[in-house]
Design a protein that fits this description.
This protein is an alpha+beta fold and about 250 residues long. It has 10 helices and 12 strands.
């Protein structure tokens, strides 16, 4: 090898040193030191909670195509009329009290990137669910799995992003019933930060959990939170098989 070539390339050791020197240190989350601004007084909050209780008691929620969920609610003390479920005042608060933690840690593949969810911690993540992307060459267009991979890499490389998020974009070039495999795998392969899983169908939620069992180990999943997911109502008062089925399945993991 000539002296000129050695000076230009520097060899493998030089490239490794360059990568190490370019490593970006980041905080896995922000801890607020200022008290949050209270936009509403205690009386206003009590009015909101009272009205919510009234809606849940008088109107209730509709359970679409999922009798098992209806029976779960019945067993928890809700009043059931066909597929309509109504909650006596205070029941919802009673059910979550002492069960849903105020603060918890979502563990990442890299422990240095695990995040604390809950006040006073702030965790930044990318946007969620965009069907379109925009670039300077093609303008606005439908997203692909390659776009998803690029967004996963960017989230990993950005110090101000603490969490890799979930559906960074909707890769419409893959079948709906299979794209979640590539999406979750992209989070696992291209980042060591926490990520969100798929809940568009109970089977896809289970697939996400199974992939995390491989990544973290089955025993680790029994005692630690490694996934977050976003479950959406069809409307404020209607829940269906896909969302509730995913929730029930994951709750028993």
């Amino acid at each position: 090898m000539s002296d000129v070539r050695r000076r230009r390339g520097g060899g493998r050791a030089a490239r490794q040193a360059m990568r190490v020197s370019g490593h970006i240190e980041q905080q896995p989350f922000l801890t607020r030191r200022l008290k949050p601004v209270e936009v509403m007084c205690d009386e206003g909050l009590e009015i909101i909670e009272h009205n919510a209780d009234t809606i849940l008691e008088k109107v209730g929620i509709e359970i679409v195509d999922y009798p098992k969920a209806v029976e779960v609610f019945r067993g928890a003390g809700a009043e059931v009329d066909g597929t309509r479920v109504r909650f006596p005042p205070g029941l919802c608060r009673e059910l979550v009290s002492g069960v849903a933690p105020e603060v918890f840690t979502q563990h990442a593949r890299n422990p240095d990137h695990s995040v604390v969810i809950g006040d006073p911690h702030t965790v930044f993540a990318p946007a969620y669910g965009s069907p379109f992307v925009y670039d300077t060459a093609l303008g606005r267009r439908y997203a692909t799995i390659e776009d998803f991979r690029n967004f996963a890499k960017l989230a990993y490389m950005t110090p101000s992003i603490h969490h890799n998020g979930g559906t960074l974009c909707e890769p419409v070039d893959l079948p709906v019933n299979k794209r979640h495999f590539d999406m979750v795998y992209s989070h696992i392969k291209y980042s060591d930060k926490p990520f969100m899983g798929s809940v568009t169908h109970p089977d896809r939620a289970q697939d996400t959990v199974d992939m995390c069992r491989i990544l973290f180990g089955a025993d680790y999943l029994e005692e630690n939170t490694v996934l977050l997911s976003l479950a959406n109502a069809n409307s404020p008062l209607s829940w269906d098989f896909n969302m509730l089925g995913s929730e029930i399945g994951r709750a028993h993991v």
